[in-house]
Design brief:
By secondary structure, this protein is mainly beta. It has two domains: 2-118, Neuraminidase, CATH 2.120.10; 156-207, no CATH class. The protein has one helix and 16 strands. The strands form four sheets. The protein has a four-stranded antiparallel β-sheet, with helices on one face. A hairpin with an 8-residue loop joins strand 14 (169-176) and strand 15.
């Protein structure tokens, strides 16, 4: 855990010298993602990439919209991210070499990237089922566009991660406090779910 943090700290120092900034400006790097060869991160609302050592930083996106949460594909050849272009929040994918970002989700609801299932499929949080349930849900989409978007087995989920063999999910389910004056989270539950059924086992609960 320490080595990735040290690499990212080294990247901050490298960028401090690479960018011409005024004395009053704050250098803020966010949402680092690390692959076998590279580090991706957000700076100034754009996606950047560098060598794993922190050397050779370069900007991948130049769209005036805001990009966030870059995540490498398992093979490290692609970067998925959440982008807000034309007033809608969707999931995009692009090669690490750069180029035009490819839009993956097209629903008018907000879609926020959470990760990759494999090199051809991403998953994300979406609010597209708010007409039926007052909570977000995890969906998945193919980056090739050859299959339809599909919901994951958990009926309510804000974040989650599959097991290595893909048989189980650990995910966070959000419950909203009954106090409507200040909207706060009353409990965050991490549970595991078998992909072929909806029965869950609570493993963590915090209030």
């Amino acid at each position: 855990m320490l080595k990735p943090k040290l690499r990212f700290l080294g990247l901050v120092m490298a960028l401090s010298g690479a960018f011409s900034v005024e004395a009053q400006e704050t250098l803020l790097l966010r949402s680092p993602s690390i692959s076998a060869e590279n580090i991706a991160f957000v700076y100034g609302g754009d996606i950047w990439i560098s060598d794993k050592s922190g050397a050779n930083p370069r900007r991948l996106t130049t769209n005036p919209g805001v990009e966030q949460n870059p995540i490498f594909s398992p093979d490290g050849k692609q970067i998925a991210f959440t982008g807000n272009y034309d007033g809608n929040t969707d999931v995009y994918v692009m090669p690490i070499e750069g180029g035009e970002p490819k839009r993956i989700t097209f629903h008018p609801a907000s879609d926020v990237l959470r990760g990759w299932l494999n090199n051809n499929e991403v998953y994300y949080t979406t609010t597209r089922e708010y007409n039926y349930a007052l909570s977000p849900r995890l969906y998945s989409s193919s980056v090739t566009g050859l299959t339809l978007d599909k919901s994951l087995p958990m009926p309510e989920a804000y974040q989650g991660s599959p097991s290595k063999d893909g048989r189980y999910w650990a995910y966070i389910k959000i419950q909203i406090l009954r106090n409507v004056t200040v909207l706060l989270l009353s409990a965050i539950e991490a549970v595991v779910c078998h992909p072929f059924g909806f029965s869950t086992q609570r493993v963590i609960k915090s209030k």
